[in-house]
Amino acid sequence: xxxxxxxxxxxxxxxxxxxxxxxxxxxxxxWELEVHGVRRFAExxxxxxxxxxxxxxQHLREMExxxxxxxxxxxxxPPRVEYSLTEHGRTLNQALGPLGAWGGERMRRxxxxxxxxxxxxx
Amino acid sequence: xxxxxxxxxxxxxxxxxxxxxxxxxxxxxxWELEVHGVRRFAExxxxxxxxxxxxxxQHLREMExxxxxxxxxxxxxPPRVEYSLTEHGRTLNQALGPLGAWGGERMRRxxxxxxxxxxxxx
DNA sequence: GATCCCCCTTACGAAAAGGTAAGTACCGCA
DNA sequence: TGCGGTACTTACCTTTTCGTAAGGGGGATC
Lengths: 122, 122
Fold this sequence. Notes:
Chains A, B: Keywords: DNA-binding, Transcription, Transcription regulation. Chain A is of the alpha+beta class.
């Protein structure tokens, strides 16, 4: 489960926020969109090695439901879909800032390696 | 899984922080210890209705491993065990502040109810 | 003597999350 | 004709997480 609720009832704001962020790749998606502004599906996919198409679409749909991500579909062939952050997504990213800094500090403290070349610290 | 790693490799600080916070009751434990300073096992248990003893001990052990929680055992009969936040636990709580505020805002926005009488907002 | 309290541990099972692989439908390129 | 690219969907399976229920060992209380 980890956190199954999705849409409360919550015990506090942290609960409500974690419900929206937890998911193996959501933090990464948030970060990719923060950095690049707009990204297509395949760009996101290539940007985060290891993610499957299934998980990526699933996470993106949930984040769209949660009002964090905007999905723009262009009626073209071949299809083009662009993802970007909504206002709420951007404020969430700001709220995650201190947590990212804390995590970075922890990584330094514990000597935990980073996975990729790109090391955002939220 | 939700997030299985536990001790990296991480892609960023947010990853590293979420790894430590995710777990159904961890936010709540953090909050209880923040508010009360020191709490015994049974006090924590009573403070968060719905948690099982198994999950509570399991989460507390992990948080102890992660250096967030200090566990003090008194060689008495009946046994007495006191839990409190470490320095890292307290700084984590501070880093969670903005996230809790964001979550609270989201709850208000979406009209999501809170579960208990006590409504911390991290 | 029976029950309750303390702080757990263990075994078992259900549910959720995630991974793998294949299929869809259409197009451009060689 | 065959392959790669676009953005997915679906079915199936494994891993992880969480919950339930029971036990344990000693002491105090009824």
